[in-house]
Amino acid sequence: MDPAVRKIIHIDMDAFYASVEQRDDPALRGLPIAVGGGGPRGVVATCSYEARRFGVRSAMPGARARRLCPDLIFVRPRFEVYRAVSAQVREIFSRFTDMIQPLSLDEAYLDVTVNKPGMASATRIAEEIRRMIRAETGLTASAGVSYNKLIAKLASDQNKPDGVCVVPPGEGAAFIAAMPVRRIHGVGPVTAKRMQALGIETGADLRDRDMAFLSAHFGSAADYYYRAARGEDDRPVREREGRKSVSVEDTFLDDLVEEAALVAQIERIADTLWGRIEKAQAWGRTVVLKVKFADFRIITRSRSFAAPVRSAELLRQAGRDLLVAQLPLRMGARLLGLGVHNLEGEDEGDEPGAQLALGL
């Protein structure tokens, strides 16, 4: 078979952790809930759609979430339950294909070009998977169906919650063109701001820049952005080798100098990182601090443990200790980051990059 001819589905469970909690506790149904820590240093891991209407979002500090939604109900996460439900969902995927690439507990790519039931329509497969998920878990999922991973992932977010979006071959470039550049997978918040400063607001704007321009401004990432703007992505669906780290970093509008502000930020970053570690089930033995100064000089400091860090408080304490050991800083910090290396556990990450032709 021509390797360029593919049918790809991206399945994304709707507000997964929060939906499991509402399923298991009828008293929470229809209410704004957040899964995570509700204290002043807690972080929202995910939240229900009722909470999202107030502007509450994943990775948001709990205190801010409460200000946006005073009636918000915080629920402690139950990762053993989420893992069990995720296993149920993956078993449903396996009824259709063995070419499954999980990204986290709540989302995965499936290549159904050749599938076990011998179904010709990828759209029909996506609908059948969603029907089975609802029937067997009581939860809803959204699906993107397309000819490559990039478009399928973007499409799954298009009609959330509980929706399907199909982008056939020949329509991918137009789908990307109408999209804000910040939504394109692989364009992070910092890169989106750089693009906007260059007058690149949409996929169409990105497509209008030639390779020389993109190379001058984005270096080695230029080829990916050039192809993404044209709806091209030849990455296969496959289980990936375990990555070596999980990290979170944040750039500040104003450089931080005071100890209290620095410690508060590293604790917030540690809580966000812990949410990613839990979601990916990827535990690391080495905690790494990153500091970028006002003059753009970067330092890193690390601490290794005999066993993987499996406590949010231990991660937070390690981050604090590494940072405090550097105080007072020689100048303000424009960026702080925290990561864990020497991981044990499965990789749930996915890095972004051929226009294909096949009816969906």
TrEMBL record:
The residues the record assigns to binding Mg(2+) are D12, D106
Location of site Substrate discrimination? Answer: Y17
Q: Which Pfam families match?
A: IMS, IMS_C, IMS_HHH
Cofactor(s) needed by this chain? Mg(2+)
The EC number on file is 2.7.7.7
Predominant location of this chain? cytoplasm
Name the catalysed reactions. Answer: DNA(n) + a 2'-deoxyribonucleoside 5'-triphosphate = DNA(n+1) + diphosphate
Q: Does the keyword Lipid metabolism apply?
A: no
User: Which residues are catalytic?
Assistant: E107
Gene Ontology terms for molecular function: DNA-directed DNA polymerase activity
User: How does the cofactor bind to this protein, according to its record?
Assistant: Binds 2 magnesium ions per subunit.
Cellular localisation: Cytoplasm
Which keywords fit this entry according to its UniProt record?
A: Cytoplasm, DNA damage, DNA repair, DNA replication, DNA-binding, DNA-directed DNA polymerase, Magnesium, Metal-binding, Mutator protein, Nucleotidyltransferase, Transferase
What exactly does this protein do?
Answer: Poorly processive, error-prone DNA polymerase involved in untargeted mutagenesis. Copies undamaged DNA at stalled replication forks, which arise in vivo from mismatched or misaligned primer ends. These misaligned primers can be extended by PolIV. Exhibits no 3'-5' exonuclease (proofreading) activity. May be involved in translesional synthesis, in conjunction with the beta clamp from PolIII.
Query: NCBIfam families attached here?
Result: PRK02406.1
Subunit structure, as described in the record = Monomer.
Recorded family membership: Belongs to the DNA polymerase type-Y family.
Tell me the protein's name. DNA polymerase IV
Source organism: Sphingobium cyanobacteriorum
Gene name, per UniProt, is dinB
